[in-house]
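Escalation from tier 1.

The customer reports that the assembly of two entities below gives different structure tokens on two consecutive runs. Tier 1 could not reproduce it. I'm attaching the input and our single run for tier 2 to review.
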Amino acid sequence: MSTGSPQNDRPTKGALDSFSHWANKHRKWVLAAPAMIFTALLIAFPLGWTLYLSLTDSSGSVRADSEFIGLENYGEVLTDFDRFWPAVGRTLYFTGGALAFEMALGMAIALLLWRPFRGEKWVRVAILLPLVATPVAVGMMWSLILDPNIGFANQALSWFGIPPQPWLAGQDTALTTLMFVDIWQWTPMVVLILLAGLTSLSDEPDEAARVDGASAWQRFWYVTFPLVMPVFITAILLRGIDALKTYDILYATKGKGGGSFHEVETLNVYAYGLSFDYNDYGMSSAVLIIFFMMIVGCIWLLTARKKRSNR
Amino acid sequence: MKSPRVLRVAGITTAALLAVGTLASCSSDTGGGDGSGVLNITLANHVWTDAIKESLPEFEQESGIDVNLTQLGEDQLSDQYNVKLNAGTNEIDVMMYRPLQEGKLFAQNKWVADITEQVEGAEDWDWSDFQEGPVEATTVEDAVVGVPIITEREVLYYRTDLLEAAGLEVPTTLEELEAAAAQISEANPGVAGFVARTGASAAVTQFSSYLYSEGGTWIDDDGNAAIDTPEAKSAYEFYGTLLREHGPDNVSTDMSWPEAMAIFTQGNAAFYTDADSLYKNAVDPASSTVADTVGFAQFPAGEDGSKPYNVPSWALGIAAESENSENAWEFIQWATSQEKMLELQQAGVPGSRVSVWEDPSATEDYPADLLEAINASFDVGVGFDRPLVISVAEVREIVGMPIVESITGGDVDAAIENAQSQFQEFLDDERG
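Tier 1 run:
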């Protein structure tokens, strides 16, 4: 009530004034409120609910009666060497392998595209094509190419006298094959991010190194790479998180349960199966919470590393 | 400002949360739905659905009910039910479901309504005209929860031209089948002697006829797992060997019927065993390059005779939360009436009404040998094609493992032993 006007005259003005005064004082909260409410509703609530489910024996229907059983699900999950631990192994193998290739290849391609050249535009478009394809279509396309009997891949191999490979049909080869499909699809994104980082660099340090007679490798390793490091780590983070939760190409090519031998069953596929095939929501939630903690751990390690490199 | 540490922790948590997007899938939601006059029908991709879709306008006109149809693939349909019915939605009224796969689960979860009164009250529509086995499958603990619409039996599909060229008779026993498959694949490079489903879970239903014909079963009379009997072992070994030695080269272990059927209809296999309700795919020139040379026969006999499954594969139920159950029941009555079922059966969908099967006009377009095989299967058929438990999806993966192990030439005995103990544990667990 900053003005002296009578309240019964213009009550709304008084209320509005006091609200804007309050809003002004708590500006940062008011502005952040929509985002915070969004986060609470759509992220914190489901997480809390999942955490709760993981402590119950909920199965069949989520709305059916379930009993609170404490950490029993976690005990069962962590001692499950048939499905859970192999799934953890596959998740790490798939993510680690895909990430390593994508970062190395991505860096190399970004460096090639960094300096202007003729036909640059066309090359960039061509490189970005896999990125815009929908993952399920990508999965189906590769299943056709890699079909052991009628696929193009084995036909191409036969021109060089190499025997046909089982690819996706092989128990031992399926996951690695899918890793390469992932690399094919997602390296362009890494290129895009790294290229943005490279273009924003100043030319001076590089020129200075050139004047000092540094070789191309030395200029990259001691000048360019450290400078582009923060962007590099951001790319690892983004791609790493995405690779960990890969689901679409696995499901599109191998179906439920990651194939008959569960040969491409990652944690995500396993949790999905527990929920949707087995209707075992307690166990599924426990797997997801453990998965969540693993991701938090990985991100924490990476950001700690990033902080150190920033110093 | 908050300390950077707090912000960082918050940042990490948010990033990780975004990473585990799947978490949200289990959240509770009371669902929308307006309970208006629109009837929501959820159906699976099937010849039955295609045929019924064409006559929907007829139903809408007769009844004055607006129909909203959702059509999905088998797996996607199951997932839809899981998500929506878990959330207590009233968006689903009529649901097409698999009685042997999901019937017990849905009934236990109270996702399907008890329609005993309706089916028994509708005298003109005549519930007693439905075949006994299918009715049993849609009745859970004395409550009718669904009306069977499609039935199927496993039959032998074969290529008449290849058999003729090899001078072979149609195999009537599993032994003859193996010998014929071997002879044909040897004489025709690039053509497999035999093909069938290979996926651990997908193959279970088609493997069941092999199991029964060899004298085995899934669960014994005392309710215990029975897949390690000598009969079951020989069935597992036979099915796997047939595919490994006479099946397609580099055989994938992920095949369900669309993949296996494709190999057969592309002319790349001489024999194929699967459900008779899929026969249109093989004899329709639009989908089959061998349409003119497909023959059908009763499932070959094993040690214990020919014992194909004879099951209701799909049924219609009413969702328990539906606010439109009267209209839903009206639709079900219309879609399963004697007249409609006759029409659908003429279009190639084997139905579940006794009177329709007795009507010669229902099957006059069926290949004669197929009809003969179907009729023979009625007499000897077994009423289930998978273990009758609540969580069927889980059990199919367990009992299907030795099939795949056998196809790939692994240690079948060890796989059976392992599957048997897991199966027993599962049964003990489910009985509580």
